[in-house]
Amino acid sequence: MKNMIIASTSTVYGSDYLAYLLPEISILFKDADTVLFIPYARPSGISYDEYTRIVKNAFAKISKKVVGIHQFDNPKEALENAKAIFTGGGNTFELVNQLYKNDILSVLKKVLENGTPYLGTSAGGNICGVSMMTTNDMPIVYPPSFETLGCLPFNLNAHFIDAAQNSTHMGETRETRIKEFHVFNSTPVMGLREGSWLKVKGNSITLKGNLTARWFVPNKTPIEIESESEFAG
Fold first, then answer.
1. Do 39 and 51 meet the contact criterion of CB atoms below 8 Å apart?
2. How far apart are CA 158 and CA 141, in angstroms?
3. Sequence-distant (≥ 6) Cβ neighbours of residue 134 within 8 angstroms
4. What 3 state SS string does the chain have?
5. Angle between helices 105-113 and 92-101 (to 10 degrees)
6. CATH no. of 3-232
7. What is the mean pLDDT of the chain?
8. 70-89 burial, b if ≥16 CB within 10 A, otherwise e?
9. Could you report the per-residue pLDDT of 7-29, keeping only the tens digit for each?
C-alpha cells in the first residue's frame, strides 16, 4: 500500500528547507527513527555528503536521523531495510541515471509499492511518474531509459509556472512544452505549482496545498484541479 508525499519543491519562498512540509513529514515518517536519503540529483556544486548534511539539519527539527544511500556498500539492501525514504531535488536526468547505474530503480519501486513511506521533492517527485520526460531539467547526462517508477498513472511537471501576462518573452511556456510532449505521448501530465504536493495512500492520490494544479491530457483543453481533489492511482 503506497504511502507517499510528492511535492513540487523542497523550499518555498521565504522559508527554510522543507519547513512548509515538516508537519506532513512528521506524520508520514512517524514510525521511522531514521530516514534513508537518496542524494543522486544533488544540486550543482555540492557533494552527496554536503547534500545529506542539509537534509540532516532539516530532519533534526522533527527528531529524525538521516543516512545517505551513498554511504552503503549495498544500496539495494539499504532500500529493502529502510523504514522511510526521501529523494531530494536537483537534476532529474542525473538522478535517473544513477538509479539505473546502481540498479536500484526496480527495488525502489518494489519497496514503495509494499508501503515504505516515501517523500519526493522536485526531481524526487518527477521520478514517481510514468516517465521523467516532462522534467524542466537540462539533459546533462544520458540515462539508459526515461522510464521511472510509475507510482503515479501520469507524469509531473514540478515547479509549474503560468505564463506571465503582458510578458514580451517569445520563448516556449511550460504549457507549450507539455503540449509538445503530447504530440508524441499520451500520458497525462500534472503541472504542480510551488507549495503544492500530492498525498498518495494506497490507490488514492489527493492534491494538497493552497493552489490548484494544471491538468493536461492530449487533444483536450487544460483544466485546473482544485486542492483536495482526489484521483485514482
1. yes
2. 19
3. 126, 155, 156, 157, 177, 178, 181, 189
4. CCEEEEECCCCCCCCCCCHHHHHHHHHHCCCCCEEEEECCCCCCCCCHHHHHHHHHHHHHHHCCEEEEHHHCCCHHHHHHHCCCEEECCCCHHHHHHHHHHCCCHHHHHHHHHCCCCEEEECHHHHCCCCECCCCCCCCCCCCCCCECCCCCCCEEEECCCCCCCCCCCCCCCHHHHHHHHHHHCCCCEEEECCCCEEEEECCEEEEECCCCEEEECCCCCCEEECCCCEEEC
5. 100
6. 3.40.50.880
7. 95
8. beeeebbebbeebebbbbbb
9. 999 999 999 999 999 999 999 99
From 42-51, 59-68, 116-125, 185-194, the region with the lowest mean pLDDT? 42-51
Cα–Cα distance measured from residue 222 to residue 196, given in angstroms and rounded to the nearest whole number? 18
Known catalytic residues? 122, 137, 159
Give the neighbor-by-neighbor strand order of the sheet with 189-192: 155-158, 189-192, 213-216, 223-225
Alpha-carbon distances, residue 173 vs 73, 98, 165 (angstroms): 43, 29, 12
In sequence order, the 6+-apart residues with CB closer than 8 A to the CB of 142 are 93, 97
Q: Which of 137, 32, 134 is nearest to 86 (CA)?
A: 32
